[in-house]
Amino acid sequence: MFSNYFKIAWRNIVRHKAYSAINISGLAIGIAASLLIFVVVNYELSYDRFQKNYDRVCRAVTYTKHGDGTVDPNPGIPNPAVDAIRADFPQFEKVVPLSSTGGAMFTILGSNPNGDVTLSKKLIEDKQIIFTQPEYFEIFNTQWISGDASVLKDAGNAVISESLATKFFGDVKSAMGQYLKVENSLVVRVAGIIKDSPENTDFPVRFFGSYEAYKKYPDIFGYTPEWGSLSSNHQVYVLLPKNTTPANFEKQMRAFSKKYYKNEGTNDREQILQPLPMMHFDGRYGTLGDHISSKSILWTLSLIALLIIVMASINFINLSTAQAAGRSKEIGIRKVLGGQRMQLIVQSMGETFLIVLLSMFIAVAIAKLAMPYLKHVASIPDSLPLLAARGWAFLALGLVLITLLAGIYPALVVSGFKPAMALKNKITSANIGGISLRRILVITQFAISQILIIGTIVAVSQMNHVRDADLGFNKEAVMVLPAISLPETLARMAPLKQEYLQNPNVISVSFASDEASSDNNWASNFAYDNRKDEDYPVFHKYGDEDYIKTYGLKLIAGRNYVASDTTREILINETLAKKLGLHDPSLAVGKTLRIGGSHWVPIVGVVKDFKTNSLREETKPLTIGPKKEFYFTVALKLRTANLPATVASIEQSWRKTYPEYAFKSHFVDETIENFYKQEQQLTLLYKIFAGIAIFISCLGLYGLVSFMAVQKTKEVGVRKVLGASVGNIVLLFSREFTLLISIAFVIAVPVAWYFMNGWLQNFNDRIKIGVGIFLLAILSSLVIAWITVGYRAVRAALANPVNSLRTE
Question: What is the CA angle 726-732-737, rounded to 5?
Answer without folding.
Answer: 125
